[in-house]
Amino acid sequence: MRVIAGAGARALPATLFAFLVASCSGSGGEDGNAPARRAVLASVGARAVLPTYRAFRDAASSLQGATATHAASLEGADLQAARDAWAAAMEEWQKAELMQFGPAGPRTTPGGEEMRADIYSWPTVSPCRVDIETVAETYEDEALLAAEPVDVRGLDALEYLLFQEETTNACPLTVDINASGAWADLGDEEVLRRRARYAEAVAALVAAKASDLVEAWEPSGGDFLGALAGAGEGSPVYATSQDALNAVSDALWYLDTETKDMKVGQPAGIANCLQETCPEALESKFARRSKEHVVGNLQGFALVFRGGPDGDPESEGFDGLLMRLGSDAEALAADMNAAIDAAFLETGGVEGSFYDALASDPQPVRDVHAAVKGVTDLLKTQFMALLDLEAPQRGAADND
Amino acid sequence: MDRARSMTGRLWQRLQEPYDIASLAVFRILFGLLMAGAVVRYVQMGWIRRFYVEPDFHFKYWGFEWVQAPPTWGVHLLFAAMFVLALCIAVGFFYRAAIVAFLVVFTYVELLDVTNYLNHYYQVTLLALLLCLLPVHRAWSVDAWRRPALRARTLPAWMTWLLRFQVGIVYFYAGLAKAGPDWLVHGQPLGIWLAARTDTWLIGPWLDEPWAALAMSWAGFLHDLLIVPLLMWGRTRPFAYAVLVGFHAATGYFFQIGVFPFLMITTALVFFSPGWPRRLWPGRLDRAEESSSGRVAAVASPGWRARAGVAAIGAYVVLQLVVPLRAHAYGGDVLWHEQGMRWSWRVMVREKQGTVTYSVRLPDGRETQVTPCKYLNRRQEREMAGQPDQILQLAHRIADDFRAQGYGEVEVRADALVSLNGRRPAPLVDPNVDLASVPDGLAPAQWVLPAPGGPPAALRRPAPRLAGAEGVRGR
Questions:
Q1: How far is A288 from chain B (nearest CA, A)?
Q2: In this complex, do B475 and A323 lie within 8 Å of one another by their Cβ atoms?
Q3: Which of A19, A117, B126, B345 sits in a 20 to 30 Å window from A2, CA-based?
Q4: Closest approach of A21 to chain B, Cα-based (Å)
Q5: How far apart are CA A291 and CA A142, in angstroms?
Q6: Does the interface ipTM go beyond 0.90?
Q7: Taking CA atoms, what residue in B is nearest to A393?
Q8: How far is the C-alpha of B132 from the C-alpha of B99, rounded, in Å?
Q9: Cβ-defined contact of A385 to B370 (cutoff 8 Å)
Q10: Local structure of residue A281 (DSSP, 8 states)
């Protein structure tokens, strides 16, 4: 008995050593959940987020040029070119709406610098405030304009400036620009001239912010990409890969609250609307591109969920991670991908704009709502459960 | 008859046996300090505002709907009072008043919103209630220092045993709650939780191995069931306590469970022999109590007051034994329908994620959906989504609001999808039932649908990804 005990005692340090060696080398190194989650983060950053931001930066630069041309000429063709450039930039940004983590995210989140609001502040919008700034010509001083609230200097303000056909203003009669007669004194031509000049100034600000955002992510700049991909391995932002994965999944919830409920549900008369429809709740009131915005949101969701564009064999997304976790998770990945495709199909099936559809037959828009809900129901339940993710803004709270 | 009387007499003798007060005095001190620390943590985390001030709507406990949230300054005042009272308990300053006031304030704050319910807050309430009955300020307290007549070196044994019961019952029922197939056969929800913690130093790479979840599930089950008997037996007590400390340290490290580990680690000290603090600092602590009067008189036969006291405490013990079992009276899976879930020590046994949307039908036939975020913050929404009684409460509130706006008697239905322990999401409540017409109560909720069958999600450890592997989209 003593012999056995002695052998056991001698074997103990060896066993402990073996355990330590094995743990230091990781149980496999490249396999396991932490490396798999980091692979998703790296792919989402490099193949979904950064390419989207770069594409938006380029589109914002084109928009800046187009608005400058229009401000100089005030020609109808140049206005159309500026509108097209706005739509192209917005197409990219609507994808980026689903990527609000890191520098684009709120300051209350890891690495958050609230850059998103500087570019697009919807649903915080105020055409009346834009009209007030038009009268005040704040846009003539770039620094002054940059210090103004976000709802007068982003893509939403630009939409109003470029697409509002009327030369009336959006303010009540009691507001000073109307009560004092300042707006009426401008005259139609001056209103159009100022709006064109204002649009040029806003487009310059947006383009600069777009460059800042890309710079914050580029490995040669702020390298948020590295901070994301290196989560749990010395990242200055995310202590664990799970923290980073949670931040990315938080951003996906945009599809539920903003896209499903606000952009589709309310205008379609489904939620928070007691009329047949509430078209005044549509996101894009002047350009009437609400449908395209929803498509952009779905594209952004798909990009993040799939870790990159379709057809990219190197991309590794949440769906790939789920597939590697076994048949239950694999089924969820398939269900979510099918739901995303169905949402694309329903949205694409709406004839004309959402405005037109709501006026003639709102059912196709309601079908879009149901299809998007098919995605978000899975997102908010089994997806969150299987990956042990927390709902956004839940904040730290104890359990037991 | 005589034998029974003799046994009762012996039991009475045992209950009245003088036990060193040291252990219970330390219990009081640690409890007070822990509660003061918990209040400080609440302030640091910004939880007072987030949990009690920001929400426009608070979920009520059935029967306590009358408990209303005070104004913002009142909430802050309550927490300030809790902090001061906790310190008073720790130092034994106006102890009797302090512990009663603490119990009232703490319980009131807990009753403000069901979504804040935690098992360990319930345990704090019960411990505070018991401490109201026990004169644990007769040693090592300001009260005893100021009033020598109060001092005592011993207290009757039943006081120590009552606290041991209260601590022990948590472990016993927490162990019993784990005796199900999800926990013991499938290692869930631990498997889900551990897989998300593989960045943990040293042991992280093993945490997503299926055997790890199963091993830790069984370890937790056996720990909870066996720890009390092992703490009761002198020969195993030190080792059992070391295991207990390790267990709570590990769960505290892996999961955000607040002061729960500290509460259990400190309160479990009550299982040690009553004089253990004196042995820790021999001499000094003894000297401090030399003037003690030893107030426990020779044990006499119980009078009517003592009998009433025994009956009350006996009723309390029976209640504590029965309440956690009430879930079985409802049938079905308590983790799903949640009836009988609270106050039953089912600690960390489910992973539940859900989503709820309400449909409101006006008397004229119009319909609209209402999302919970109109009333709740994200934390409340997450808690509510898996708990039918809260879904019902919010439905009532929505109906009230529509009624107040002049829409008359509306019908409110809920589309609630829930994933339990990683299963495919299933409807939690019957979407055809008008919840506005369903009264809240303790009766079995027929409008809650049965739990989904089948095992919970089985997760495997991700293997290395093959380059260019085809995805589920057939890329």
A1: 24
A2: no
A3: A19
A4: 10
A5: 33
A6: yes
A7: B378
A8: 6
A9: no
A10: G
